[in-house]
Amino acid sequence: MLEHIQILLRGLCGVREMLFLHHLSLLLVFVTVLLSIRFWLRAQAHPLPPGPWGIPILGYLPFLPKDIHVHMMKLAQKFGSIYRLRFGNKLFVILTDSKAIRDAFRREEFHARPSNALYDIFEGYGLLNISGVIWKDQRKFLHERLRALGMKATGPGREQLQDRIMVEVECLLQCLATGEGKPMDIGDLLCNASTNVICSILMSVRFQPNLPNFPNYLRLKALHDEGFKLFLKCDIASYVPVVKYMPSVVENFQRLMANHDESLEMIHEIIKQRRKIFDPDHIRDILDSYLLEEYRAKEEDRVLFEGKDFDKQLVQVMTDMFSAGEETVKTCLLWSLLYLLHYPHIAKKVQEELDAIVGRSRMPCLDDQQHLPYTEATICEVLRKSAAVPLGTSHATTRDTTLGGYAIPQGTTVIPLLYSCLMNPQYWTDPEKFDPLRFIDAEGRVHKPEQFIPFGVGRRMCLGNVLAKSEVFLFLTSILHVFNISNPENEPLPSMEGNLGTTLTPSPFKICFVPREVSKISRIDMRSQEFRTAGL
Ligand code: HEM
User: Fold this and answer.
1) Are 254 and 269 in contact (CB under 8 A)?
2) What residue's CA is closest to ligand 1, atom 34?
3) In which element (H, E) is residue 82 found?
4) Does the Cβ of 334 fall within 6 Å of ligand 1?
5) What distance in angstroms lies between residue 276's CA and the mean position of ligand 1's atoms?
6) Mean of the pLDDT values across residues 297-321?
7) How far apart are CA 154 and CA 263, in angstroms?
8) pTM score, two decimals?
9) Is this complex's ipTM strictly greater than 0.95?
10) In this predicted model, what pLDDT tens digit does every residue of 169-187 receive, in sequence order?
């Protein structure tokens, strides 16, 4: 064959050209060999992380059980704390301990969110699902504005945040009191309470069955609940190219889009109403802060969000904060009550600490937090054992990189398996046991081990962690300060098994709230509801 080519070339070219071609082909062979050796050496130095085999087209998807988070934690025993999985045609890297997660997420190339047809719904707007410079700017802006509204761990100004939360705490306590100690399922009440806190911070709106906007709340909640389910279904389908064209998947996708559009439109309506009464000298919430930016940009003849639609950004940010802040806190409160039903002696110890430090003549406040180590340890233990966001939120790599000696190619989806950090027997003694004392050191102070990362770590860690901790503290301590909680008589204790969706939630359960000498606590200060409804 080679001879034939040479004869042909001899016929076409002179001797000098032949020599040149000969040298050129030698050079090409040499370069190819060199590149192959380099590639092989690099692959030896930085191979892909190890991981289980999957099957063609679907990858590891068919082997995923219902409790994905537990299964993924078990895979780490075989493959180590950094391993790979293939879902359909997509490469995933799973990080199962806080060291690997910290190592990765402190680096810029791990800060992006994955990008596929599903995430494209957000068109690069909002905060939760965007990447790059816009994400950085928006995160900084929101962080500063939230701090200005009192969302900080220490220092003056926290009363603003506390006031907003306490309005909802007081409403909740009144509802619980109407139950007169009979069994109640309080999932909807907690959902309404946490929605109202976040909506108050975002746009000074609250919803209550006796307020005219309550049907809007029910619709928004239904859209979100369905949206989360559809998102999960479409998410899995989006990894397998063939599956995503199936009629049922296309239909789910279209419903998700319609759902998303309707919920954005509802928020947009609130924004349009607010614009009419906006006052740059009276900034009440996050919505006002954005409108102030818009107002200043107009005054200074400056363009906001070059090439982007300001209203779309505003609506998507509101929606992102709403989704991130409502479900998580409600879930965490439900778990708190469920664990305390199972471990009544812990509930009693928290009440004793509250009685000793806060006293029986007032309600707990944020300043008490630092003086209540057992209560704080109990909340840490709730955050650990419930692992409310077991799979964290996926990140993606923006360039080829390495981690722990492994190659992580550009565009890899990275899952920080928070469930493993919080529940792995390698890091926690008897992790299934609910035991606040694991967070108390020899001096009686609260100590948080390095695997305790319920809010993630790094530059993309939960933006609302201070708010979440404040809410859980104020709701839980207030409930325990005013009521004794118990399981309905002659009923088995509710299951502690979690159901995996975007969060890990307990199944619905009933609980009795029996007042504890309420008369001794000064009457709960019900602030006027008019101030809240005025923002509508
Ligand atoms: C107990 C309650 C909560 C838990 C366990 C929780 C947990 C998390 C986790 C694990 C992440 C992902 C971090 C990452 O990407 O690495 C996250 C992100 C986020 N959380 Fe929370 N969260 C809670 C409550 C809240 C609340 C109340 C808000 C409201 C402001 C909030 C706002 C956010 C936002 C905006 C992000 C995305 C940050 C970004 O992409 O830069 N979260 N949260």
Assistant:
1) no
2) 463
3) strand 82-87
4) no
5) 32
6) 90
7) 35
8) 0.89
9) yes
10) 999 999 999 999 999 999 9
